[in-house]
Amino acid sequence: MPQERRIIMGFTILLVVLLILVLYVIISCVRVVPQAYAYVIEFLGSYRTTWEHGLHLKAPFVERIANKVSLKEQVCDFAPSSVITKDNVTMKIDSVVYFKIFDPRLYTYGVDRPLSAMENLNATTLRNIIGGMELDQTLTSRDIINAQMLKILDEATDAWGIKVTRVELKNIIPPAEIQGAMEKQMKAEREKRQTILEATAHKESVVARAEGDKQAKILAAQAERDAQIALAEGRAKSIALVYQAEAEGLKALKNANIDDAVLKLKGLEALKNVSDGRATKIYMPTDLAGVISSLGLAAESLGIGDATPVDKTAKPKPQAASDECCDDDEKSAETRRMASAHR
């Protein structure tokens, strides 16, 4: 009995161990593939299938997961590469490559260490492109370089199951002496632009000042013209009013029926104003003048008796009244001349 009991106990333990081992194997064969991942499965060392996201079960001992591949877009920041430009300038350029794996099988079996292969391909492609460009063109043609590298890398990595989506030059580092020369060139260019801007501003200010002077002269000429026109119109109106007044006076005299006595009195008043004693010979048309005309004419002609000496000096001209418009210092000389002439 004890012997049988020991056999049964040993057999039970063996069954439990076997059961635990089977459960472990079954559980180890159950795999859950996360989202955006793919598992490459091999059967006895050869490629069998690719698992996508979800629950999967593999055959124990004969199948294995050869590679776990991420399908998300990835970024590789490669180390700086030494390149030589067409004009023999050595500089360092580092680039960033964005890529996605579209075929996990090709990515697993297409090339050994695909990221290292892509880094070397990136360095050789960069040297190729930069070698055909000069330094200035390299510094100003990043977009062109990026586009050419993207095209070449994408075509070359198709066989590796890699899709290159974007290539960017991160840094372009020329030698120190080239950087110094570029800084001097940039400083000279800025000083040149500053000089051009200052000259342009000076030119514009001179032109604006000349335009202002021109407008001022035009306005002054227009004001002078308007003043002369106003003076001429005023003179014309004054002359017209004088003649109109004289005409109305004559008309009034005509309508007044003046007799001979009044006319003789007006004649004497006129002779009083005329006889100012300055080389004026007066001949009286009245009867009184007829009595003494012969004696007065003889005395004046011969210069005898109480003949009045002849004043031969120039007759003084009446002083013109001042004109406030013309006496102003701001009026032009031409306006004063025209006003004096009209007086």
Quick synopsis:
The protein is an alpha+beta fold and 343 residues long. 58% of the residues lie in helices and 18% in strands.
Total helices: the number is 10
How far apart the termini lie comes to 168 Å
State the total count of DSSP E strands.
9
The proportion of residues forming helix, as a percent range, comes to 55-70%
Largest sheet: 4 strands, antiparallel
CATH architecture term of the largest domain: 2-Layer Sandwich
Characteristic key phrases:
343 residues; alpha+beta; Tetrahydropterin Synthase, Chain A; 4 domains; 10 helices; 9 strands
Topology of helices and strands:
Blueprint: H1 2-29, E1 30-33, E2 37-43, E3 46-51, E4 54-57, E5 63-70, E6 74-77, E7 81-84, E8 90-101, H2 104-109, H3 114-131, H4 135-140, H5 142-157, E9 162-173, H6 176-256, H7 260-274, H8 287-302, H9 324-327, H10 333-342
Antiparallel strand pairs: 1-4, 2-3, 2-5, 6-8, 7-8, 8-9
Helix pairs in contact: 3-5, 6-10
Provide an overview of this structure:
With 343 residues, this protein is an alpha+beta fold. It has 4 domains: 2-70, no CATH class; 74-174, 2-Layer Sandwich (Tetrahydropterin Synthase, Chain A), CATH 3.30.479; 180-257; 259-313. Helices cover 58% and strands 18% of the residues. It contains 10 helices and 9 strands. The strands form 3 sheets. Strands 6, 7, 8 and 9 form a 4-stranded antiparallel beta sheet that branches. Strands 3-2-5 form a 3-stranded antiparallel beta sheet. Helix 3 (114-131) crosses helix 5. The radius of gyration is 62 Å and the shape is rod-shaped.
